[in-house]
Specification:
Helices cover 39% and strands 20% of the residues. The chain is built from 10 helices and 11 strands. The chain has 2 domains: 126 residues, Rossmann fold (3-Layer(aba) Sandwich), CATH 3.40.50.10090; 140 residues, Rossmann fold (3-Layer(aba) Sandwich). By secondary structure, it is of the alpha/beta class. Strands 3-8-7-4-5-6 form a 6-stranded mixed β-sheet, with helices on both faces. A 5-stranded parallel β-sheet has the order 2-1-9-10-11. One of its GO terms (cellular component) is cytosol. InterPro entries: 4pyrrol_syn_uPrphyn_synt_sf, 4pyrrol_synth_uPrphyn_synth, UROS/Hem4. GO terms for molecular function: uroporphyrinogen-III synthase activity. It comes from Mixia osmundae (strain CBS 9802 / IAM 14324 / JCM 22182 / KY 12970). This is Tetrapyrrole biosynthesis uroporphyrinogen III synthase domain-containing protein.
């Protein structure tokens, strides 16, 4: 009997055993392992604290999040402020990519917590979120003459800003986290790949173009991580990551998640397996 394993190329939540990917895949019968190619660090925390304390007022018409790392940075900054909230962020819409990002945002500290979270169930990428904003909220946002606040990382793609600019929607970007290569990634990936066996079916799940680049560099530069790629199945968490994999010509992609969520990734993998 073949054993199904999945190597998740992402950082787990603080408690790995409570990570939603771990819980879902374990329940579905997969042996699951996390190997994080990147580390994220919050930046501009003092500036972000001051921005949250002042509130949107006459400055912003809404806030955009396309990653949970940005939500985490927002929550860390908001948590330094006292409750009850005085900054009135509940008065503007918050636009997000994916249900889990929306759920995380709904539970942030009181001073940064929104009441209107839009897009979580209907947008799996920044491009789709931009389309939703333009299609359903452009008139409302243009009427305020205030820009949207877009919280980004150092590797955030420019697709969303380009689309909003083309629709004449003002945007102010603020980098709130940066990512660096994990110093342990090469060793951890090598260990995970060495464990592959003939009686195992192993999935390698990619979560970002940065992860694709990190794996490619590791496989090309370190012979000890060499692996029979025919023994692997490769999954991508959305079209952006799938495109990065296709451009590297390193792996064939067998499954693409429709949404950046555990359930969507599992469904895509199981569709291929069936």
């Amino acid at each position: 009997m073949k054993v199904s394993r999945v190597i998740l190329l992402k950082e787990p939540r603080n408690d790995e055993d409570e990570d939603p990917y771990m819980l879902l895949f374990a329940n579905a019968g997969y042996e699951t392992r996390f190997v994080a190619p990147l580390c994220a660090t919050a930046v501009e925390q003092t500036r972000l604290q001051e921005l949250i304390a002042k509130g949107p007022a006459t400055r912003f018409s809404g806030v955009i999040f396309t990653s949970k790392r940005a939500v985490s940075a927002w929550n860390d900054a908001a948590s330094t402020l006292p409750c009850p909230p005085t900054s009135r962020w509940s008065e503007v819409p918050f636009f997000v990519v994916g249900p889990s990002t929306g759920e995380m945002l709904a539970s942030v500290h009181c001073n940064g917590r929104p009441t209107r979270i839009i897009g979580s169930q209907r947008s799996g990428t920044g491009a789709l979120l931009a389309d939703l904003i333009i299609r359903e909220h452009a008139t409302e946002l243009k009427g305020t003459e205030r820009p949207l606040l877009f919280l980004t990382g150092d590797k955030t793609r420019d697709t969303l800003p380009i689309k909003l600019a083309a629709a004449d929607l003002a945007l102010e970007q603020m980098q709130v986290y940066q990512t660096t290569d994990s110093p342990r990634f090469q060793d951890e990936l090598a260990a995970a790949l060495r464990e592959l066996g003939k009686d195992e079916q192993t999935w390698l799940a990619f979560f970002s173009p940065s992860g694709v680049r990190a794996v490619r560099a590791t496989l090309e530069c370190s012979p000890r991580t060499a692996v029979d790629q025919a023994s692997l199945r490769v999954a991508a968490i959305g079209p952006t990551t799938e495109e990065a994999l296709r451009k590297t010509d390193l792996f064939e992609v067998h499954a693409i998640a429709d949404q950046p969520e555990p359930e969507s990734l599992l469904e895509a993998m199981q569709r291929y397996e069936s």
